[in-house]
C-alpha cells in the first residue's frame, strides 16, 4: 500500500506533526513541563495558545478552516470575539472558575464563525506550567461538535 499525500489520514498526521513541532519550540522558550504528544492525542481541529490574560498568541492552521477567521486576525484578540448571543454565560463562568483554580477544563460552548453562523465548539483548555510550577499560558484544543 502506498501513501498518497492527498490521503486524508496522511494530511491529519502531517498537520498534527507540524502543530507538535511548533508547540515544542514554544515550550522550550517558556520552560513548560508538558507532554504535548499525550495532550495532542485527543481529537481537535484547531489549537489556540493564549497568555494568562487570554490574549491569543498563536493559532494553528485549522483555526481558519473552523472559524473563517485568518490567524493574523485572531492574534492579539481574546477568544471571546468568537462568542455571541447564544453563548452560555453559565458555561463561560464554569470555564473561568476552573481555570482560576488551576484546573483543566472541557466544555461545549456556542461560538460564531466569521460568516455569523453559530456552531457548537468542544473545547479542552490545558493550563501550561513552567519549571517553577507556575501557570504561564493556556492551550485550547477545539473542534466543532458533530
TrEMBL record:
Keyword Protease: no
Domain of life: Bacteria
Domain (PAS) ranges: 47-102
CDD domains recorded: PAS (cd00130)
Protein name: PAS domain S-box-containing protein
One Pfam family linked to the record: PAS_9
UniProtKB keywords: Chromophore, Flavoprotein, FMN
Keyword Flavoprotein among record annotations: yes
Amino acid at each position: 500500500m502506498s501513501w498518497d499525500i492527498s490521503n486524508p489520514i496522511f494530511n491529519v498526521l502531517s498537520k498534527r506533526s507540524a502543530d507538535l513541532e511548533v508547540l515544542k519550540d514554544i515550550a522550550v522558550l517558556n520552560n513548560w513541563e508538558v507532554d504535548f504528544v499525550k495532550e495532542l492525542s485527543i481529537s481537535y481541529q484547531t489549537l489556540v495558545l493564549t497568555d494568562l490574560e487570554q490574549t491569543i498568541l498563536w493559532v494553528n492552521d485549522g483555526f481558519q478552516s473552523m472559524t473563517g477567521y485568518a490567524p493574523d486576525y485572531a492574534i492579539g484578540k481574546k477568544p471571546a470575539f468568537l462568542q455571541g448571543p447564544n453563548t452560555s454565560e453559565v458555561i463561560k463562568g464554569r470555564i473561568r472558575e476552573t481555570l482560576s483554580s488551576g484546573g483543566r477544563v472541557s466544555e461545549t460552548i456556542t461560538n460564531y464563525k466569521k460568516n455569523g453562523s453559530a456552531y457548537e465548539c468542544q473545547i479542552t483548555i490545558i493550563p501550561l506550567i513552567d519549571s517553577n510550577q507556575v501557570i504561564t499560558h493556556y492551550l485550547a484544543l477545539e473542534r466543532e461538535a458533530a
